[in-house]
Specification:
The protein is of the alpha+beta class. The chain is built from 5 helices and 11 strands. It has one domain: Glutaredoxin (3-Layer(aba) Sandwich).
Length: 213
């Protein structure tokens, strides 16, 4: 087993480990989420206690953001306000932005519903919903490796983007302005009725702390 003091920077199917005090993800499930194919359906409880179904959102663009508030890569995008701005702009385009928390109980980033809602209030983050996936079922279904790991589902229910939030895999705030904004660009292309030009990119960040079950 890999040391439990590493961060995974996902590079396709090849993990690149960097020495940091973070735990490597363990997932044995086979991902079924493939760009250009129907996005796997799911229903998860929201932080507010209400279930959310992907199928029920058909007809809208849906953004899935795998998140872990303790991850420095996630903190980079929230401390800078970049994630909140993306959420706001996506909502203005009619998209539904859903955070997904797949950290196992006791693992880094795991929170219950009230704690997740408090975190969003403190960060002035306004996703359409925050979904709780403590068993990691949906995370494994999508093959989510890192936080953040981003997915976009179009109005027809097809997965049209999977990968990093941007092109520079660092936790430095100053790199945001220099990076190619993959998610922002993909949403802009969808809003303009264009196909997403980069449907798959490298996700980067902290490994998702899946349960061993």
């Amino acid at each position: 087993m890999q040391s439990r003091r590493h961060v995974l920077i996902a590079l396709g199917s090849l993990p690149i480990l960097a020495a940091t005090p973070l735990t490597q993800a363990t997932s044995t499930a086979t991902a079924t989420a493939t760009s250009g194919q129907p996005a796997p359906d799911f229903t998860l409880p929201g932080a507010d206690g209400k279930p959310v179904s992907l199928q029920a959102l058909r007809g809208k663009t849906v953004v899935l953001e795998w998140t872990n508030h303790d991850c420095p890569y996630v903190r980079k995008h929230y401390t800078s306000g970049n994630m909140q701005t993306l959420q706001k702009d996506a909502a203005a385009q009619g998209a539904v932005w859903l955070q997904v928390i797949s950290s196992a109980p006791g693992g880094q980033g795991h929170v219950d519903g009230p704690a997740a809602m408090k975190l969003n209030a403190e960060r002035q983050s306004k996703p359409a919903g925050t979904l709780l996936d403590p068993a990691g079922r949906v995370g494994r279904l999508y093959g989510a490796k890192t936080t953040p790991h981003m997915y976009i589902v179009n109005a027809q229910g097809l997965l049209v983007y999977a990968g990093g939030i941007d092109s520079i895999p660092s936790s430095r705030l100053e790199d945001i302005a220099k990076a190619e904004p993959y998610v922002r660009n993909a949403l802009a292309e969808l809003a303009a009725g264009k196909p997403v030009s980069k449907a798959s990119t490298r996700p980067y960040g902290c490994s998702i702390k899946y349960s061993d079950a």
